[in-house]
Amino acid sequence: MHRSTKADKARQLNAAYSMLQRNIALPEAMQRLSREFGLSERQAYRYLKEATYLDRPVEVSETTVPITLKLPVRTARLLRAYARSSGLTIGAIVTRALATFFGTQRRHG
């Protein structure tokens, strides 16, 4: 049995959210989630319960890989401080910055 990734969990939560939005009865929704994703009915119920608190589907993120970066000390301090104050992870900040950088590069290069 493999562990679910964050993307797997997001897809399962979104499926639960969709079923709730379509007013599918809880017992049937549990069975559908269980069959579709190979979950126990207990786990399917947990996803349905969590989905009741959502205003909209959650974002399904890409699979991530760890990398090591060497940054100047001042840059690392600024990055960590920004992460603390914004509530974002360092990975999320770097990903956004790189997406902006590469988007800019494509337009100009």
Walk me through the structure.
It is a single chain. This protein is mainly alpha-helical. It has two domains: 6-51; 73-108. Helix content is 66%, strand content 0%. The chain has five helices and no strands. α1 packs across α3 (41-51) and α2 crosses α3. It is elongated. The mean pLDDT is 91.
Topology:
Blueprint (H helix, E strand, L loop, with lengths): L5 H16 L4 H12 L3 H11 L21 H14 L3 H19 L1
In total, the number of domains comes to 2
The radius of gyration is 19 Å
Low-confidence stretches: none
Per the principal axes of the C-alpha atoms, what is the gross shape? elongated
In round numbers, the mean pLDDT is 91
CA(first)-CA(last) distance: 46 Å
**Helix and strand composition category:** mainly alpha
By DSSP (H or I, 4+ residues per run), the number of helices equals: 5
SSE order, one letter for each helix or strand: HHHHH
Helical fraction = 55-70%
Report the portion of residues in β strands. Answer: under 5%
Instruction: State the major sheet.
Output: none
Number of strands: 0
